[in-house]
């Protein structure tokens, strides 16, 4: 198993580990530990946007056609979108290692 | 004031030293006035015996328009510390004070205040912890926050308490760490002593306005208290630990500057009659003055007794301590708190650990005395000295002993 290492020298941290760059959490990859990922069936999708509303990681984004697509950089694979979808358009499939 | 301090006032300095009349004041009131002189912006506190007079008087000063500060009468000590953290994060100068159960109720926030490097100043009016319920003095409360990362100092009398308030603000704001100043409940907080407050112009010089580089500011947003994932938590704690260690220089320098301004000298480890001492006791807080009387009596009988007092508890002044013990053969450490089931009282454990880093090791005997304000008199100190003398040749059968307990 890969071992956790320090990200940055303690000497380079701002006092109190403050984050001085606003909004930099957008860079933080939260999608790398998921076991399942959502797959959208566009034939069933009615573009209601409930997946977008309920996603706890805000990883759904509307595309040009109006479909909501999840961003696997952030998606943790919780499956809430699949649960909430009124048309059963989202299925969770096993993430391949 | 003690004899030795009077001697040390350098009379050659005419300016800025100003010898003023001391005024008889309750120590709590004097502390509140010193806090007001430091021009605090926010006071957030909840009353608890024996701390109440301090924040009550500050409330009066704010109410009467004598102090331009925001006084937040919170619903608990947990909220008191939370409000201090929030206010301090915006670069406001903050103050709170508590005792005993109140300190325990703010416990989780103490660690956040120090980890976020917020220069909050708190006076802990030391009181024992329930149960049994006890409003009286010992050091059980402050010893629970030993590992919280606060700079921690102890005063022995009213004048020291006032002086250490000014010092606390100067240090906290330079080190960007919170400072807890400890005074003994009742034996200090509720007595009237001759106390001299500094002239306001000196306070203004010693405690300049607070300007924090990093603060909560809508114009320049930053994040405080973000999550520390396993890849960063260790580095955050290392940085915090180094900051606390580095605060030692700031603390000592602030005392040196204070001496220049006032002639009153403070050191991380204070000693009394230690130059040629064979045996010494070590204590913190106001009982030290009683112990000094015991030293004087023993000295008259030709015994080479000495006294060590820790003024600075965190960061622990290891080098000063090792220097202070000199060539003593035995050291009696007097704790005023129990660390249940441990190998000693909190101070005893610390001292033994410190000595392990040195080759010169006097015999250490550890007493726990004065719990819940049980009297520890000059006679008791003489007995503790005698017991410490015995420890030179005879290894104590116990790793610590609760002294004066009725069998």
Automatic annotation (TrEMBL), chain A:
UniProt keywords, alphabetically: 4Fe-4S, Iron, Iron-sulfur, Metal-binding, Pyruvate, Repeat
Domain 4Fe-4S ferredoxin-type: 36-65, 66-95
Cofactor(s) the protein needs: [4Fe-4S] cluster
GO molecular function: 4 iron, 4 sulfur cluster binding; metal ion binding; oxidoreductase activity, acting on the aldehyde or oxo group of donors, iron-sulfur protein as acceptor
PANTHER family: PYRUVATE SYNTHASE SUBUNIT PORD
Protein name, as recorded: Pyruvate ferredoxin oxidoreductase
Source organism per UniProt: Thermodesulfobacterium geofontis
Lineage, broadest ranks: Bacteria, Pseudomonadati, Thermodesulfobacteriota, Thermodesulfobacteria, Thermodesulfobacteriales
